[in-house]
Amino acid sequence: MARISIFGIGYVGVVAAACLAKDGHDVIAVDVDAGKIDAINEGLSPIVENGLDDLVKEVVAAGKLSATDDVEYAINNTSASFVCVGTPSAPDGSVGLKYVELVCQNIGAAVAKKDDFHSVIIRSTIVPGSCEGTCIPVLEAASGKKAGAEFGVGYYPEFLRESTAIEDYYDPGLIAFGALDDATRDILTDLNKNLNCQIHTVDLRTAEMVKYTSNIWRAIKVTFANEIGNIAKSCGLDGQSVMEILCSDHKVNMSPYFMRPGFAFGGSCLPKDVRALRHLAAVNNTPAPLLHAVLEANEAQIGKAEAMINSSKATKVGFVGISFKPGTDDMRESPLAELAARLIKTGVVVEIYDPFVHEAYANENSTAGRGNDVVPDLKDRLNPDLSSMIEGSDAIVVGNIYKDTLEELVAVNDKPMIDLTRISRTRVSGDDYHGICW
Length: 438
Ligand SMILES: NC(=O)c1ccc[n+]([C@@H]2O[C@H](COP(=O)([O-])OP(=O)(O)OC[C@H]3O[C@@H](n4cnc5c(N)ncnc54)[C@H](O)[C@@H]3O)[C@@H](O)[C@H]2O)c1
Prior knowledge:
Layout: E1 3-7, H1 11-22, E2 26-30, H2 34-41, H3 52-61, E3 65-68, H4 71-76, E4 80-83, H5 98-112, E5 119-122, H6 130-143, E6 152-155, H7 165-170, E7 175-179, H8 182-191, E8 199-202, H9 204-234, H10 239-247, H11 270-283, H12 289-311, E9 316-320, H13 335-345, E10 349-353, H14 355-362, H15 378-381, H16 386-391, E11 395-398, H17 406-411, E12 417-419, E13 433-435
Parallel strand pairs: 1-2, 1-4, 2-3, 4-5, 5-6, 7-8, 9-10, 9-11, 11-12, 12-13
Antiparallel strand pairs: 6-7
Helix pairs in contact: 1-3, 5-6, 9-10, 11-12, 12-13
The site of nicotinamide-adenine-dinucleotide has 24 residues, from helix 1 and helix 5.
């Protein structure tokens, strides 16, 4: 069993403290608020949360949880600390780190005087780079010790929801953490080992980003549901019924499908349907800011790819894929076609390898080039020989992945490659390789 100090007895801190104590660990809670410290030591929960009154009463009576404002006492009597203080927005909207900084300073000063190894694990929500840019420097300065060697550092975001916090603690949807050192990683692995949940052990920054991604995703889901509800109501429909039906599809709608960062959406349906619902909302005097933002964001992704290609200074660009997705010759509102057209307009020579669009022309299908109204001379730009297209290009844009092209694309190392889909899961931007979101 571990000995853990928890800094900040707010919603996150007190739930973690009580649940860890219930699991048999020895927990010391630390706060600057005397009222909260007294409440805990009297066996009372300082916050209102389902089941927490009984839990705090039980673990305090069992001698497993106590509270103090004495930082040195807490550090000396535990081997790991969780930092759970608030991170309210700063006036400019940035994450407010003043409480986290102060606690790191206090913990660092106590760690300076402690001989045994101590792990400092941040649980407060902090933007990517905060551990490395703020917490670690403050801890090192205050302790005079080296992070990762003479004391441990971890980032272990909390995902609980108030009102179901204890339930969420024992049945979490997600566990992810990062650690600078093995000792801290082992503590976190051990604390989570009995939970029925996949554990993602990552680096500090990824763990920080996962927390924001989770919260922003929740915020976007609420906003989306509300916007659909408002538009449905404006049509005399029940938005809750509409959303329930949407959510019954676990194959596409409520699944990882469409959740992979990459290039803009396109095709014959999504762009026109977003426009049409946005128009209907406007006709019904119903604001639809999210629908506006969706089209704006999609356009920005095309602009981003264009800027990446322009920075390569290439005058001859080879496109792998031009239809709106692999496996089809359909070019209706293909963002790749739009991207190619913009380059052509600026004088860039564009050649295209797309086996499906090529096949349609080779078979003399009457619908060959279907949906293309932006790329001039499409047929003449098609090159069915990938090697010769690569050879004749200054830069390669990978828009669609075709299985039999992968080996050759992965081997390209003598010219810029702008990858909009990811030819290899392990590739990240560097040297001549530029992934749009990786
Ligand atoms: N509330 C949630 O549901 C939730 C869920 C997940 C993550 N988070 C994140 O966890 C963090 C904590 O959130 P919260 O809602 O528990 O905050 P909170 O405001 O309820 O509690 C913070 C506690 O920290 C204490 N504190 C401030 N300075 C201190 C210091 N120097 N030393 C010791 N204690 C100090 C405060 O007195 C307070 O009791 C935030 O970053 C938040 O974004 C919150």
